[in-house]
Amino acid sequence: MAVKALVDSPIQKYLEALHGRVADLREGDLASYIPELTSADPEWFGIAVATVDGHVYQVGDSRQAFTIQSISKPFVYGLALADLGVERVLAKVGVEPSGEAFNSISLEPGTGRPLNPMINAGAIATTCMIAGDSPEQREQRILEMFARYTGHPMVVDERVYASEARTGHRNRALAHLMRNFDVIETDPEPGLDLYFRQCSVLVNCRDLALMGACLANNGVNPVTGVRALPEAQVARVLSVMSSCGMYDYSGGWIYSVGMPAKSGVGGGIVAVLPGQVGIAVFSPLLDARGNSCRGIRVCEEISRDFDLHLFHTSRSTSAAIIRARYDATLVGSQRRRRLAERDLLAQHGNRVRVYDLQGELTIGATESLVHEVLDELAGVEVLILDLARVVNVDQAAARMLADLSRDLTGQGRTVLIPGAANKYAFMRLVAQAWPQSQDLAIFQFSDSDHALEWAEDRLIATLAPPTDPTQETALADNDLCVTLSGEERAGLAAIAQRLEFAAGAPVFRTGEAADALFLIAQGRFEVLLPAPGQPPRRLSTLSPGMYFGELPLASGQPRSADVVARDGGACWRVPFAAIEAGLKIRLLSTIASQLAERLAEQARVQRLLG
Ligand code: GLN
Fold this sequence. Notes:
Number of helices: 22
CATH superfamily of the largest domain: DD-peptidase/beta-lactamase superfamily
Bound molecules: glutamine
Number of strands: 19
Number of domains: 3
Structural class: alpha+beta
CATH class of the largest domain: Alpha Beta
Strand content: 15-25%
CATH topology of the largest domain: Beta-lactamase
Largest sheet: 5 strands, antiparallel
Distance between the termini: 36 Å
């Protein structure tokens, strides 16, 4: 199944065509300064691409094993950073591109510090820093580190190792030179030997692509879920790859391909597009700088064809992150309100403004959001920024939202940010940037509906004396009676029977036959949708002066929800059978026109929110 799906993928087809095209390129030579590397087949050519979702696409000799060589360097550098911390590592090895060949004998004048960990000198010094009680344990730790990236145990090609150990005089000279400068503080031979062994670890294209995908995925192996590198070190490793990974071609590479990468004289190249993919190519024919000729060509073409250059991005703007913008005149909360309250909201709801946000809040997108919020601020008392559909808030965006909220709060406005509770990094940043926010209502709502309900309540409270749900609302003042004549009201009162309900008592249950409608006299009533095996879902809360259970008067259908008294209350029960024909028509027309209004509002919301 999985294999079939991969074969059909457009990426797979693209890679096959690319492989076919680039296979004609026969420039370059096998590395010969390590004698054993000349036994490679110059025709070997594989490509693999691994995504941060853990999909791996492969073509050609993607399973052919070869020695990792210098591609080991950034990964061992990551291990050293994790072992010792950035300061101790930087004290020994710099991060400046050398612009010189990988095996150059270039050390910083005076200190003898190698310029960066990607040239041999820096890599040998880095390997000498790896923690461990014995050479065997250090090697074990390096192999285990690689295994976290590839997801399987790793082995050393003993022939290539022996070949390099026998002939690596230049590296030996470098190691001893660094010993002289105390960059390496103990006998350099065991560290040098470990370096030769790390370079001879066997990998294939698939392994390398996954190793790249781990770096793309913030240090976590996307297939196994195992963390290969602490998150804090990922950007450092990628940085030295992008400035120094291709040796004296590093500038040209970042210019044309635009991704951090690392090559090795075994013929491998791994490139990383952060957040997206790891790309690996294997072809042992090398150019004069020791980089795989086909490897460079493949990466150049993929980068161009898929527009992967890191500095070539089309970042989202506010248009993409604002899913909807509205105020409380246009969209109300799910809370059913009495007619008088709805009139108030229709008149003054523009004091409550909602931005329903989605996607990724980055610096650019958030900047234009903030701009728009400030432009539209006149008369706004409550600003609701709904993050429920936002997948990520970066650090800059979090700062901006914290600043905005603090400033608006300082002006006496209220900011509510529902849907933020599960965005831990965001919450942490806001708490840091604005400690007082913790005492405010800002994060107390899980969705914009509840935030809106709260804002409506407050607005209504400032505009009208609060309605006390324990206070009795006369039958004549019920919303159902607004258009009735005095005589009709009296007729309704004559057939109505007053019923008391204790807290939690049901008025009726879903599925029961319906033979009466109810007008609320006192207390709150909840309309609940029962869900098997779960707590019921609240559809709405009704208060005195509202009515319910009326639709079956027209439809004859059984009850479609439960209605339960919340804290105890009273209703007038009006039996359908007792309503005489004339009154029935008057009631139905009131019900229909109020229902039509509600439906029109819902249609408006639907259009707005999709
Ligand atoms: N082991 C090789 C060396 O030190 C690694 C060089 C490379 O891959 N560029 O020469």
